[in-house]
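Q: I'm teaching a short session on how sequence maps to structure, and I want students to see two examples side by side rather than one. Could you give me a first protein with its sequence written out and its structure tokens following it? Keep the formatting plain so it prints cleanly on a handout.
A: Of course. Example one:
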Amino acid sequence: MPESTLSSAGLDPRRKQILIRAWRRGMREMDFLMGGFADANLPTLSEAELDDFEALLEVQDRDALMWLTGEAPTPPAYQTALFARLKAFHTHSSPINL
């Protein structure tokens, strides 16, 4: 099971909960994508960015993975600056065929 490299010590309760949810997605690929991004960025995200990240955590893994890999278009409601950062954080040269 993948694990966070970010210590939750010192994080406020909201960020602790987001960190857990980012690493416990259910689909291993999404654990790495969302969890890795959370490890690298969670401490410095603004409240608005936390809102956007929490909204993404509510999305089904398969849908979010398809948006991140370019297999499906991202719905306008999720085309946020945070999503663009998440997508740029994980580079790939072509869509992943599941």
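Q: Perfect. Now a second example for contrast.
A: Example two:
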Amino acid sequence: MDIVNARCAGLDVHKATVVACVRVPGARRGERHAETKTFATTTYGLRQLADWLQAHGATAGAMESTGVYWRPVYAALEGASSWSS
């Protein structure tokens, strides 16, 4: 299987939290590393999420959300340099 995005993230958005998982290249060739972390949906929490994704070099992601809870997450990540390019 070909890798389309070497550094990517999946976000599960809830009313009060966002559960994020990043997948990045591992230490050895062909190995992948995944890390999952939960963030608050407050402005501070969303800034931490953006910083965490940027620290992992994530450049692409997918978001799952019920209702309109995705909107502040999208707004916070839209301004993050690694996600908006």
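Q: What should students look for in example two?
A: Point them to this: The chain has one domain: 8-84. Also worth mentioning: The first strand starts at residue 8 and ends at 13.
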